[in-house]
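Hi P.,

Sorry for the delay on this. The queue was packed all week, but I finally got your sequence through. Input first:
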Amino acid sequence: MANLKLGLAQGYWSAAPHPDFVAMAQEAERLGFDSVWSAEAWGNDAFTPLCWIGAQTEKIKLGTAVVQLSGRTPTSCAMHALSLDYLSNGRFMLGLGVSGPQVVEGWYGRPFPKPLARTREYVDIIRQVFAREAPVTNDGPHYPLPYPGEDGTGLGKPLKPIVHPLRKRIPIYMGAEGPKNIALATEIADGWLPLFYNPYDESVYAESLTNMRPDFDIAQMVQVTVTDDIEAGLLPFKYHMSFYVGGMGAKSTNFHKDLFVRMGYEEEAEKIQALFMQGKRDEAAQVIPSELADAMTLTGPKDRIRDRLQAWRDSKVTTLLVATTDKDMLRTIVELV
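Then the structure:
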């Protein structure tokens, strides 16, 4: 039975940052939350909000959930991590993810294929930077160091970071959905950031987590809604999940939809995608089964939520990332957990 840690999931911005995002992090720290997490899609970056928060907090850990591999070279990402870890006095956690082909090729202008091999190289280079034991090199095809291309000068040389890292092993988390990518996370990372997790049925991830270490952290974002109207309380999560299943990816390649299918909802996944592509988002959200939405969230009166927390304690999840912009909800979840 896990002693659940609490984190605050702030996600990525929409049109603008939430005006209270720093105050929310400060309140989470005051209440004893372990961490606060920032994300990026194709708008804000994930590091800058954590710099703002880190400068105005003292103890709460600062995590990216997640930064996209294709947005930065591995050494650039490592430099961001080193800087933020130093400025926060060792509070930083680096969450990484490959994103998907629409974003990688459409926004960053980089090729998407071979995401597992790219991730392995990326993490290895970052670990070399953090360790600062030798000049950083990589013989792999995705991020060769020094640059070997005939279109270069041939003058590149292996370098060590000028900065002496505050820690030689900054924690690395991976955002992963595919079975092989999750298994890779248990091998090369310190934690995993799932998108969707059902604590009542963990079978979809069982094989991928076979070699999980005892100290491996699974940090899952959970929507908490205190309400007497459970069905109405589940609706925001249904919209959230249907958006990923139906709209966050191409029709032929959508990793979120693939996960939904592996969970046993192939018929619903096809229907959600069809409705979403017809612009019928309200109808698509209603296809998400209430039983599933209820399992993946903490929804209902306080006593019901308190009872249903047991499933999360009994699961492999070790950190609950609460997605809220309401300070009262932070206080409520601390009371319940």
